[in-house]
Amino acid sequence: MSITRFGISLEHRLLKRFDSLIRKKDYASRSEAIRDLIRDSLVTEEWESSTTETVGTITLVYSHDIRELSDNLNDIQHQYHQLVKSTMHIHLDGHNCLEVVVVKGRAKDIKSVADRLIGTKGVKHGKLIATTTGKRLK
Amino acid sequence: MSITRFGISLEHRLLKRFDSLIRKKDYASRSEAIRDLIRDSLVTEEWESSTTETVGTITLVYSHDIRELSDNLNDIQHQYHQLVKSTMHIHLDGHNCLEVVVVKGRAKDIKSVADRLIGTKGVKHGKLIATTTGKRLK
Amino acid sequence: MSITRFGISLEHRLLKRFDSLIRKKDYASRSEAIRDLIRDSLVTEEWESSTTETVGTITLVYSHDIRELSDNLNDIQHQYHQLVKSTMHIHLDGHNCLEVVVVKGRAKDIKSVADRLIGTKGVKHGKLIATTTGKRLK
Amino acid sequence: MSITRFGISLEHRLLKRFDSLIRKKDYASRSEAIRDLIRDSLVTEEWESSTTETVGTITLVYSHDIRELSDNLNDIQHQYHQLVKSTMHIHLDGHNCLEVVVVKGRAKDIKSVADRLIGTKGVKHGKLIATTTGKRLK
Q: pTM (2 decimals)?
């Protein structure tokens, strides 16, 4: 992993405001904050590609009082077993469960899995976030 | 849990397009799809409140080749142990790890934990998603 | 324009919360609020299509102290004259201008115009929003 | 306006990917692309503040076949005349109008105007984007 160093110029006042935002967000350094902005823009692009392998996490909140719901969610995950890497389940309270499903594949396929899971009757809230395999971010 | 039934009117062509979107997204029914839109708008509002307890999941991708990084992430989670409910770790490949951290608390506090974790040197990509305890969604 | 009326069922408590959100947002009626959620999901889909004609508005903030900047922005808009419908210019203060550019075409082409304009040296802030021709929303 | 120059370090491969993204988006230079990322993060923060004056543009698409709709939208804008800077109207086709309303004020107040306008019966699609007065971005 070879590192390149380069200079950027910024209006002084803007830099001061950015430095204060960085402190608020607890960044280790200015470089690290800018690297995060750069990597985030690359992940956005990664998700617009139709071929690159990428990673998404799907968060689902549902009531475990609904019959067969967790079986149904399980079935869907099994149908996509080649994409679904892992699932974590949390008991939020006596009734509500949260499940996080990590999926690896092409953006399009990850979105299909997410649509299936979020669309399942009884799921109260579901959301997909686009992250990355990390491979192309170094 | 008492159910209310009410009518809504929609232009015929619009309804046809919505029905085709629903099929594409595998919703069980039109009611279920509309309930999802409604619940999603309520979760958005929940996150604008400064007092309501809510839930977020933070996804982090980082290289496990970086010394002490996973210790650092661990330390931060311990500092916020009253908020952090659970963490799942996945080995994406020989170098890259994905971690999902589920956090419960006020939106503002969840954002602080996310900022701390995402800002940690070595984290390649991090994202917070806003979900819900599910309590107020029934 | 023919109207279809159909029923949806919702947990009573959820409906109460939605009704209070609707009041806060000044919606004329529950039907109108739900129609907005439905239309918004259709616009999102419209922007994922590669062929449908759609509309975007690009907002730019820039300093008019920078030489030739407004000429450059103008040139770009002329290159895309078949897409650019109209532009509004506002003098925010002695130095800052805001320009809103309305663009009609395929999502992909609208994004290209937006990238060109936002990437122009001297533009302080730029953002594209995805809206619609309205044709397919009735 | 004084300029500060500073260095940042980035993995070589990451920089190459960023450079290719920059070319795709037609940025004048790497510095300019990074400044845009920085300014965008500052605008996001500006909108989380409850006191800073900022700017938003609201895009509305509606049918001009609906009686009194444009009068209603006009009335709302007049009620907020101290915030509404300017409005542009475009005839998208024989039936559909697009209106862009530029609003200056505190984020909270801009959101109120947007909620009122978007919630008006007959508005097919409406969206607010958060931009800036530009004053604090130099």
A: 0.85
